[in-house]
Task: structure prediction
Amino acid sequence: MTQATTLIIGHTGKTGARVQAELEKQGIHTLGVSRSSKPHFDWNDPESWPQVLEGIESAYITFQPDLAVPRAESTIRAFVKMAREKGVKHLVMLSGRGEAGAQRAEQVLMKSGMTWNVVRASWFAQNFSEGFMIEGILNGHLALPAGPVPEPFIDIDDIAEVAVAALTRPELHNRIFEVSGPRAITFAEAVLSIAQALGREISYSPITIEAFLNEIRSLGEGEEMQWLMHELFTEVLDGRNTPVANGVQEALGRPATDFREYVRKTAASGVWDA
Ligand SMILES: NC(=O)c1ccc[n+]([C@@H]2O[C@H](COP(=O)([O-])OP(=O)(O)OC[C@H]3O[C@@H](n4cnc5c(N)ncnc54)[C@H](OP(=O)(O)O)[C@@H]3O)[C@@H](O)[C@H]2O)c1
Result:
């Protein structure tokens, strides 16, 4: 009998790497894929999909660039259909809170007839240390089109633990885990918390969405990324996601990690050392 394998799409990404490491630690066989893996997998090239789906029992799915983009729903529909035809039994998909497009893609999974889970996450705390916001932290000044709206940033170590629980514990199957941190803070408060832990000055300025889009356009970002950033900062960050969600407690039986703890361990890791 061949060993059951869990496919990790985006295995070098922020959550994919963590999910794969934890599954491997538990002795579960995995196949991590992305555009640079062998065999490779590209969301933009459906011909690359069948080769990674052979012999796969379950999959952890991170979509690129974001499930919020309008084409995500049809791409996820085509992928889910192919996965089902290839005999995959269980799909666990990372999604975003308050994103209309993401919720349409979730519906595809939930109506697929396969076993499913959705991990619907708030903004990642690790955007400050592994994502596009680290540069501002290292430069001592972060400027974003985000004002006084508080966001319950989630530690993605928690996301990975919830995803692994969903993949490995049958009693959690067919559920949405809406996950956030345990308290909502503004971007300015988040930056202040990081600055205090590092003992150096880091300022935060809210800027207009137009100024931000001009900046990313000048850095060469295309239409879709500009649309996505507009969507994330104006729609998703309008206060709809400020209430905290309970998914970490529901899946793991413990509270979500506080932003202060994320800051403490991240500062200790040295990634913010100037
Ligand atoms: N950041 C947030 O605050 C936030 C909040 C909620 C939800 N999310 C969701 O999180 C998901 C991203 O997950 P993540 O942050 O764990 O990933 P990530 O760090 O953005 O991961 C990038 C991974 O995806 C691969 N990749 C990039 N483009 C690809 C493509 N066209 N086809 C296949 N693989 C590709 C990369 O490898 P290669 O370069 O080798 O392809 C890498 O393995 C998105 O769907 C987003 O909606 C994010």
